[in-house]
Write a structure and sequence with these properties.
Layout lengths: L2 H12 L25 E2 L2 E2 L4 H17 L5 E4 L5 E4 L1 H7 L1 H12 L6 E4 L5 H13 L4 H17 L3 H15 L5 H10 L3 H13 L1 H4 L3 H9 L1 H51 L22 H16 L9 H16 L11 H8 L4 H20 L15
Parallel strand pairs: 3-5
Antiparallel strand pairs: 1-2, 3-4
Helix pairs in contact: 3-4, 5-6, 6-7, 8-9, 9-12, 11-12, 12-13, 12-16, 14-15
Length: 393
Amino acid sequence: MGKMEECITKQTCQGANKVFPAPPPLPGPAKNCRRKGSLMKNGSAIRGNNCAATATRALWDRLFDGGYKTDVIIKTDNGGIICAHSNIVGMASPVLRGMLKQAKGFGHRRPISIHIHGVPQDAVRAFIRFLYSSSYEKEEMKEFVLPLLVMSHTYVVPQLKRACEQQLEHGLLTIENVVDAFQLSLLCDAPRLTLITHRMIIMTCKAVRETEGWKAMKKSNPALEKELLESMMDEEHGRDIMMQKEKNRKSNEQRIYLQLCEAMEALVHIFRDGCRTIGPHDKDLKEHQTPCDYGDCCKGLELLVRHFASCKLRVPGGCIHCKRMWQLLELHSRLCTDSNSCRVPLCRNLKEKIRKQSKKDEIKWKLLVKRILRTKRIGGAPIFVSSNYNSSP
């Protein structure tokens, strides 16, 4: 046993009856500090990286604002100067790193000068600040989003480029700047932004053509203006075609619903009043009848009824003509409000069957009935001759 073990044993034996103070608690997370990992608070894991990210950003911002031991001077338009650290801007941008190496290779003494022209000084300052802390102020992004997009592409800062594209897509793109954003998206290799801006220009072509951006593009890049005008014409032509197709579709639907309205009228007419060779059992058909108001519709229904009465495959699905007759009878039963006094065959039986149909089929039939009744009221179809029809959709 070594001396340390002997000393501990001796002290333990001598102070067996003494009360030693409780050890201090293990170090835990700060109250307002949260970081991603396995820290625990009140028995539950603390997630997030808010404290570390905020503190880190604040540290980098202080380093940039304070200018402590800067060794690079960034010159902007109108004689503006921004001081920075070569190690930081060089690591954040490979283009700036190459410029710094080139300046050192020419034997330039510190501080090294770099020129960034063509953009406002405040935009350059926001760009350099992003290289430090990977963050930006909302107001600066709102005001300088296009210059920041250009610099992020020119100096290869993909994080800032993605941020500019997202901000433009989600609110910063306007009628006034969409033409400039479209041209810059082509120059800065931003295909998604190109698609979004092009779509906005096409959809708001009249307003966009009145902006200063369009007028400037017309002078500087007439070929691009010509392409956009051709796209607008193609879009307008395609829109006209789609509108014509939609108009034809609605017209065809209206015609079908009118035919169904007439068919329902003719069906009631045949079994209530009788027509040609078919009529109710309690009436004798006259040899010379007046011309029927329903014309070919009544004639076609008469042939269909005769086939339905004599067909051996009358079950639904067995014969296409019988299936059509079943559908017409079911449609009538859904429109009829008094099956007890109705002369149309199977009206009451089909109403009982309707109550057992699936919800999906019920929705389809209700929609069809609603459209037929609306067509009857709006489309100029004749009023149903039978009082057994509901007049409200």
